[in-house]
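Record type: monomer structure entry
Structure origin: computed from sequence
Chain ID: A
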Amino acid sequence: MKSSEKFNFEASIKELENIVKALENPDTGLDNSIELYKRGIDLLNKCSKKLEEAELEITKITKKE
């Protein structure tokens, strides 16, 4: 993902689901599996960061009330 593109959590989760399906497929070659795994780890890290940011925002909102 380019830095100019906005991160889309839902689209990233869907892509992760597709990566998992591809990795579970015995017809997926080793080289492709490695690339998919790298992409999956990248998406996982970005999704985790987004969830942490959301949790912090919700905590701030609830403390204001």
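Annotation 1: The helical segments are 9-24, 30-64.
Annotation 2: Residues 13 and 65 are 31 Å apart (CA to CA).
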